[in-house]
Amino acid sequence: MRLAAAACRRVAPGASSHIRPRRPFSASTGRFRSTSDPSAAIPEAPPSRWIADLRARIGKCLTFGCNGQQISQAAEVLRVIATEWKELLAGSEGYLTGGRRGLDGREVHWGEMDTFGHVNNVNYYRYAESARVNWITNFAVHVDPAHREQWRELMSPKSTGLIMRSLKADFKFPMVYPDKISVYHRLRTRPEGDPAPSAFFLDCIVLSHQHRRISCRLEEDIVIYDYKKGGKTSMPGFMLDMFDKTWKLQEQETLRARTRIAGLLDSVERLERETWNRPDAVEDMGGAKGGQ
C-alpha cells in the first residue's frame, strides 16, 4: 500500500542523485542543485566508493614523488578521511550522526555470523531496529524534552504508537567478524499536508568501520497507529514540527558534507596535476638517483 501523496512530496537529499564525471571521481565536474534554501546549492552526491578512490589516487601521486608541501597536502586529506569518514559518508546523504541518533561504533559479535562465514542477514534488521529506537528516543531526551512522554509512548502500545508496515533491505557486501558498525536513519520525505499524514518513510544505512562503506541499506514504511481506537491516525503536531526541523537539518548536513568532500576531491586533483598528471612526470620506483 502506498502512502498518501501528502507524505511523499519531497525526496531526501541524496536519495536518487548521481554524479556524471568526465573522468572517474572528479569534483570539478559535479553539478549542483538547489535546496529549500534559495541561497544554497547542494553538490551532487559523490561516488559510493569515494573514500577508497581518494586513498588510491593519493597513493599514485606518492609513487611519482612529492615535495614537502605536497606530502603535507596528501597527509591532510588522509587525516580528514581517517577522522571524519562516518560524518562525511552519512552526512552526504542527509543522515545526522552523533549523540544517540542511532548506533555508533557497535561491535559485531562473532555469534552473529552464520555457517557461511558472514553476518547473518537477519541481524541487519535488528541493527536497524535498535538504531530506530535510539533515533526516536533522541527526540524525547535531547531534541524535544517538552514532549518527552509522548515520544516515549510512541515506542509502546499505550495510545499513539508506531507500527512497521514494510521493511526492506538491500545488502551491499557481506560483513564478517571482527568489525564495528554505525547505523543511522533519515526522513526520506518531508511529512506535510492537511490533514497530517498517517505514515512516514525512513531510510537506514549500516556502515562497516572495517571497510568504511555502506554494507546495507534499509527502507522503512511506518504507520502512526491509535491503539485506543484500533486504527491509523494522523501524525501528532509535536512530531510534525520536529520532523520538519529534522528535514531542514538533513538538508544542511547534506550541503556541509558534500561541500567538504568536494574540497577533498579538489585537493587530490590539484595534487595529481602537480605530480603524475603532467607531460614530464616520471614514476619514482624507489631506486637511488644516480646510482648503479
From TrEMBL:
InterPro entries: 4-hydroxybenzoyl-CoA_TE, HotDog_dom_sf. Residues 26-38 have a biased composition (Polar residues). It comes from the Eukaryota. SUPFAM superfamilies: Thioesterase/thiol ester dehydrase-isomerase. One of its GO terms (molecular function) is fatty acyl-CoA hydrolase activity. Pfam families: 4HBT_2. Residues 14-45 are annotated as: Disordered. PANTHER family: 4-HYDROXYBENZOYL-COA THIOESTERASE FAMILY MEMBER (PTHR31793), THIOESTERASE_THIOL ESTER DEHYDRASE-ISOMERASE (PTHR31793:SF39). This is Thioesterase/thiol ester dehydrase-isomerase. It comes from Staphylotrichum longicolle. The lineage of its organism: Eukaryota, Fungi, Dikarya, Ascomycota, Pezizomycotina.
